[in-house]
Amino acid sequence: MANPLYANYGPRDFDKFDCLKLSLVLYAMLAFVLRGYLVWLMSVTNMRDRVSILQLAYPQTSLFYLSLLAGAIGLFVVLLICLRKPNGPAWVKKCWPYTRLLLIGALLFDLSVNLVGYFYWQLQSTEWLVAEIGIIVLLIGLAYRNQRFSINLQEFPTPLEKPTKTK
């Protein structure tokens, strides 16, 4: 009997290990958490002026470094995704169900960094702060409401049996 959790998914929704492909919500959360690293990569690849993009996004260098710290949690989640395969390390299998909590913790840490930037250094605009709060609330809501994300956290790839040859 088929599992009712998978009733809305077709064959294209599964990867080569018969696990549901990772949710777009997971990738959206990662992109938002890792935006400090994305800005840093854009500034490094800009040959004309390597600092202008960085200063535009992060006028206070402390905000940039704290954003990288929040993004480090996102890098850890990227590592979990890369190592999430059959016969992967045991610690990955143990950490995988907590991926949602790790990302939410990173989002909340990032928000606290921007709150400090707004109230302490007066660097962030009110509009950006409200937009960031809205984005974070939306992402957290989606992380808990998205069925695919919940299934992703329950699954872990296992080795598939090789088909036996019949004569």
Kindly list the characteristics that best describe this protein.
single chain; 167 residues; mainly alpha; 8 helices; elongated
What is this structure, in a nutshell?
The protein has 167 residues and is mainly α. Helix content is 63%, strand content 0%. It has helices at residues 24-33, 35-45, 52-57, 61-83, 90-95, 99-119, 126-145, 147-154.
What does this structure look like?
It is a single chain. The protein is mostly helical and 167 residues long. The chain has one domain (19-154). Helices cover 63% and strands 0% of the residues. It is built from eight helices and no strands. Helix 1 runs antiparallel to helix 7 (126-145) and helix 4 (61-83) packs antiparallel against helix 6 (99-119). The longest helix has 23 residues, at 61-83. The two termini are 30 Å apart. The mean pLDDT is 87.
- The helix/strand class is mainly alpha
SS field, number of helical segments: 8
The N- to C-terminal Cα distance equals 30 Å
Please indicate the percent range of residues in DSSP E strands (runs of 2 or more).
Answer: under 5%
Regarding quaternary structure, how should these chains be classified?
single chain
Q: What is the H/E string?
A: HHHHHHHH
Low-confidence stretches: none
What's the pLDDT, averaged over the residues?
Answer: 87
Question: What is the radius of gyration?
Answer: 20 Å
